[in-house]
Design brief:
With 415 residues, the chain is mainly alpha-helical. The protein has a domain at 331-414: Orthogonal Bundle (Arc Repressor Mutant, subunit A), CATH 1.10.10. 67% of the residues lie in helices and 4% in strands. The protein has 19 helices and 5 strands.
Length: 415
């Protein structure tokens, strides 16, 4: 009996060792594919390895990185939950480097999801696992980049004293550090200073994905600065257009630089992260300051997009549009011609109320007493309406529970 138990234990250990060995080998191949910008192949290998060998923090982070590079925002968000759970269960077994890299990566994903306060907190945790000045500087520049975009100059100046820029060239990670400093230069010293960093970067040997990120940040800065078009910028815009795998946010920047103030009808695509949607609204607001109607609509959308974030993140994000009223409640103009007859009915009903019971809705929509079958009908009706509104305005308008359907408290429908 003892021999059988020992045999089972040895067998299980052998299987586990084999899985660990396979995971390490596949993860190494995955990183090679990522370095070659073959993110789809890397993602497929990572997902297969996860399925066959089980989770590991490093593997999960690289899967999420591939999803991010490919614009799979929803999947990337879901992966963040797995990373957090796996880290909590295994952090005592991880190296300092793995812990540090995990917190830095989690910070980036949190930022993309709009959780900017939590993103800065993750970077603070990453500092605990620094093993060299190089590690410290890498985290610090990421923190300064986010603080710069948020316009928090007092905090930037406080942290700047820790950054010795003269030693940047001593590190192999110079590219990543310089990229992170683009927004810092623009925030503190203006466009010309950021431009110098940009041209220094594009003269380096950058990978395709790194080059795309550099162009994206710089062109967004050009949009904010509203620099007059010159032959130089037109040349750089053309180079960016020629990049492979441009995402929706990249295409918006190109449209913005081409049309500037004529993007009031721009609709959000599904592959945009929440932070990218907010960045787009900020640029649209810059171009619609004279148009009260468009500017007001942008502010309402901004408030609605941020309402599910923590109060701390909302407060930081409010710096980007200081005139916004987070309690704004303004009409959404609805073109009823775009909806089915049933959808029109429910939209009209909510022009004068914020909430209706399921029984009331059953009577008004179908002239029937409420029954269980009506819940499924109403749930699908709400789902389709929310999906349609999300594609147009980036937010849903209704919520449903077992008793009623409620209108988002910050929305007033006007058909």
């Amino acid at each position: 009996m003892v021999d059988q138990v020992q045999g089972l234990m040895v067998g299980n250990m052998s299987v586990q060792y084999s899985k660990v060995k396979t995971r390490i080998e596949n993860h190494s191949k995955m990183k090679e594919l990522m370095a070659l910008n073959k993110h789809m192949l890397a993602l497929q290998l990572g997902q297969n390895t996860l399925s066959d060998c089980g989770p590991h923090v490093g593997l999960l982070c690289d899967i999420a990185c591939c999803q991010y590079q490919l614009g799979f925002v929803t999947s990337c968000s879901e992966m963040l939950n797995l990373i957090s759970a796996e880290f909590k269960s295994a952090y005592q077994l991880l190296s300092y480097e793995s812990c540090r890299r995990t917190f830095v990566f989690v910070s980036k994903i949190q930022e993309e999801l709009g959780h900017v306060f939590e993103s800065l907190e993750s970077l603070t945790k990453a500092y605990q696992y620094c093993e060299s000045k190089k590690d410290f500087k890498m985290i610090l520049t990421q923190e300064l980049r986010l603080l710069s975009y948020l316009g928090l100059k007092d905090k930037i100046l406080d942290r700047m004293s820790l950054l010795n820029q003269d030693s940047l060239n001593t590190y192999s990670d110079k590219i990543e550090i310089l990229h992170a400093l683009l927004w810092l230069e623009y925030c503190l010293f203006g466009f010309d200073s950021a431009q110098k960093i940009f041209f220094k970067l594009i003269n380096e040997s950058l990978s395709e994905s790194d080059l795309r990120l550099v162009y994206r940040d710089f062109l967004e800065i050009v949009c904010h600065a509203r620099v007059e078009s010159t032959e130089l910028y037109l040349t750089e815009i053309q180079k960016f257009k020629e990049q492979n795998n441009l995402q929706s946010f990249d295409l918006f920047l190109l449209d913005y630089l081409t049309h500037l103030d004529n993007l009031s009808d721009y609709s959000f695509n599904d592959d945009l992260s929440l932070m990218q949607k907010l960045r787009i609204l900020i640029l649209k607001s810059k171009g619609s300051r004279e148009n009260n109607s468009t500017g007001s609509k942008n502010h309402v959308q901004y408030a609605l997009l941020t309402q599910h974030l923590s109060l701390s993140s909302q407060k930081l994000l409010k710096n980007l549009l200081p005139e916004i009223n987070m309690n704004t409640r303004e009409p959404i103009e609805v073109d009823l011609a775009e909806f089915t007859e049933l959808q029109k009915k429910i939209l009209v009903l909510f022009e004068t109320t914020d909430s209706l019971s399921l029984n009331e809705l059953s009577k008004k929509l179908w002239n029937e007493e409420y029954a269980v079958v009506h819940y499924d009908r109403l749930r699908m009706l709400v789902y389709k309406l929310n999906k349609l509104m999300l594609s147009k305005t980036a937010y849903s308008i209704f919520s449903i529970n077992k008793n009623s359907i409620k209108l988002n408290q910050r929305i007033k429908i006007a058909s």
